[in-house]
Write a structure and sequence with these properties.
single chain; 5 strands; two-stranded antiparallel ribbon; three-stranded parallel sheet
Length: 171
Amino acid sequence: SGTGKELVARAVHAESPRANRPFVAFNAAALPETLAEAELFGCRKGAYTGADRDRKGLFLEANRGTLLIDEVAAMPLGLQGKLLRALQEREVLPLGAGSPVPVDVRVTATANEDPRRLVREGRLRRDLYYRLSVVRIAVPPLRERIEDIPLLAHLFLDRLASPPQAAKRFS
């Protein structure tokens, strides 16, 4: 946690041909399975209790851009299987929908533990791991990157010294 995984994902997106398309981040550890599935793939009104309207889903919001799935191993194995299918077929099936919707999304996934160990422990599907690990970027903890501490200290000091944008507008 706190190593800058999302910053790395945003930098990869910013330097890619998809840079002018959406970057959408999703924290897989934050929602129960049904809500996470609806959040990722979308849903039709009435698909489950509380689905009071159609929802596009993050895959479609990120279409032609990048979707970051933070803490992918926190997803239940069943949802990991649905994610794998979406990646393989390049389409998503919104909850309650009768037919899939094609998507063109670069998916970046993070884990705060060694993904190979998570596979061995059965917490991350092996087939999903291999589908996602096309390019692996290790982001070591800050304690192993002490040369970054002065840069971060200056960044935080600059932010604290500058008034927020809203305050600038009203002063």
